[in-house]
Amino acid sequence: MTTKSMTMKLCTYMGAIAGTMMFVGIWPVAHMFPPLDPSMPAAEVAAYYRSHQIGILAGAILIASSSVLFFPFLAAVATFMKKIEGPVSPLTWAFVMVVAFGFVTLFFAGLIFTAAAYRLDRPDAVVSALSDIAFLLFVMPAVPAFVQNLLTGFVILGDRRAQPILPRWLGYMNLWTGVLLLPGLAIGLFKTGPFAWNGALAFWMPAVVFGIWFNLMIVAMLGAIKRDALGGE
Amino acid sequence: MMAASQAAASPPRGHVPGEEGVWVFIGGDLIVFAVFFVTYALARQQELALFESAQALLDRRLGLLNTLLLLTSSCFVAQAVAAVRRGDDRARRLLLGAILLGSGFVVVKAFEYSAKIAQGFTLNSNSFSIYYYMFTGIHLVHVLIGLGVLCFTLSRFDRSGRMQGGVALIEGSGAFWHLVDLLWIILFALLYLL
Asked: Could you tell me if B29 and A176 are in contact, meaning their C-beta atoms sit under 8 angstroms apart?
């Protein structure tokens, strides 16, 4: 095993660690999974923060840290895309720029959860407004994620090699995931129902699809690293 | 040469249209819309009277017109695929016809939405309107993607009206277009007729 493929492997595994940290942070630690009901009155939201203060503050640290650890993984994805696209690689560059601001929202989500839970002697309205911002930051990045997935899909499907660097089905999988994340765009329009930020179609379905996509990406990337798809030429 | 043209005329048994990966996308999309339909059925059960009265406000004639447009368009695509397999140069015109009919769907939808909004039936009017606008809107995104794919396929014909690089592209885009059609038929039945 070469040093380069060792690094690629570590970067890919870093994605698994980041995903786990984010999930542990938002769910068993902060108790914010699924998100609080957007139609909840401000007083109840503030009361929830008061009774879960330590968990939310600790969960926010995990969420903010995971946002950083996603980047080695995304860099590994970009490395594959660069190899596929070759020297002239506009889609890879677009991908790098979109993930740079798409994933930063995760860091800000952690930050604003902290701000909301930090001083709970504030008026209820302030706590609940901060909470709104944190959830919007957490769910609405479905939009940059949509573009990111389309770019990944197009690059994988544009691979003209006899033995493609990443499997073609993964390209279609990326396009499908992108389309599915899109209902996240509409969460600002609803406080109840399936397209609210805790709804079946704007939250649960994208959350499940994101989980499937993420694991398949890791498996396919590790497979490509194993057969040294990045070496040669 | 003879064997090659015969092989093109009748695809081998167990032939999967398009490339296999397209079916990852189509299968995934079908699962998603199945989730949509179950969610809708559950919500309708809970507020049956409201859903029935709101559904009565929809214009079934426009819905039917759109169904006919998509069905005819799908028929044109199927003919175009068959024409490409035969090496027939009418394929390009058939595909263009399919694209025009599909664009007609988008125009009708624009009229339908603006008429509904003018009547005061907007996104957050009631729980039925959320489903109506979001489901038909997401389906409309599929129509636009499908039209884009068909236009891309159209651009792959050479000057003599033949298609370069085999039938996989037109089969795959045709399969996606049939999916768009199938989903609309279910949506039309659920939202307009039920």
From this structure: yes
